[in-house]
Amino acid sequence: MTREIEYHDAMTNMLELIWGVGFMTPGGEGNVANLVDGLELEGKRILDIGCGIGGPAFVLASKYGAHVTGIDIEPQLIEQARIRAEKLGLSSRCKFIKVAPGPLEFPDDSFDVVFSAGVIMTIEDQEEVLTEAFRVLKPGGTLTVYDWMKREGEYSEDMLYWFKMERLTYAMKTFSEYKTMLQDNGFIDIELNDRSKWYRQRVQEEYEQIKSDLYPKMLEVLGKQEADHFVENWRSMVVVCLNKDVSQGYYRGRKPVDGD
């Protein structure tokens, strides 16, 4: 996968207004809690694939006591994350690295947990991502992912229009496709959890906020043309969520140890 910079400062600023400081996907700390539910993270090494500007990594380090390595392909996001880590006093627990698409430059069996929130859906070669996640996990380690999934079949016209408004790269899969890929890559104890009902309600609330309370700030940050584009973007996202063209959920798998 190759792509030009997609998350410019204005875009990340707007996402933070909607989803919380440091976050580029919905749910904030609650989403992080869902992703790591039942995992013991104190002192553990976590790889955050697609770390963005660092919000989840900071929660994992400060609240759960983990040591986090965040990776992303967009250098401006990595720079923001590093600056924020320094300001929060978390530089010793959070390291951020700009990477190129492709194989990860980490040794085998390096991490206790591989974590990703709202990113793998944007990567064309998802098989490679899961293969690499399996490789760098220690035996017994866990892959835990929050992502957006498509329904069976071809993208609808509403989905294609939403992609146009998003101006982002997507390569969405279905829940069943993720299950198959996890199995094919050697993961066991696979769990899939559809949490779309929550976000179908939340996205409508976000749209109302964007049209009203947040709109003056959007004008200030983006200018009228881009602010109006952002409003239409969210309207189109409401449509695909309510139509169940897109779902939000979690999937998890474990790397076997000898004897499994």
Topology:
Blueprint: H1 9-19, H2 28-36, E1 45-49, H3 55-62, E2 67-72, H4 75-88, E3 94-98, E4 111-117, H5 126-136, E5 137-150, H6 157-166, H7 175-184, E6 188-194, H8 196-211, H9 215-222, H10 224-242, E7 246-254
Parallel strand pairs: 1-2, 1-4, 2-3, 4-5
Antiparallel strand pairs: 5-7, 6-7
Provide structural commentary.
The chain has 260 residues and is of the alpha/beta class. It has a single domain, classed as Vaccinia Virus protein VP39 (Rossmann fold, 3-Layer(aba) Sandwich), CATH 3.40.50. It has ten helices and seven strands. Strands 3-2-1-4-5-7-6 form a seven-stranded mixed β-sheet, sandwiched between helices. β2, α4 and β3 form a beta-alpha-beta unit. α8 packs antiparallel against α10. The longest helix has 19 residues. The radius of gyration is 18 Å and the shape is globular. The two termini are 34 Å apart.
Instruction: Give the overall form.
Output: globular
Query: What is the helix tally?
Result: 10
- And the CATH topology? Rossmann fold
Sheet with most strands: 7 strands, mixed
Low-confidence stretches: none
Helix content, binned percent: 40-55%
CATH architectural arrangement: 3-Layer(aba) Sandwich
Strand content: 15-25%
The whole-angstrom Rg is 18 Å
Domain module count: 1
CATH class: Alpha Beta
User: Widest sheet: strand order?
Assistant: 3-2-1-4-5-7-6
The termini sit apart by: 34 Å
Q: What is the average per-residue confidence, as pLDDT, rounded to a whole number? A: 94
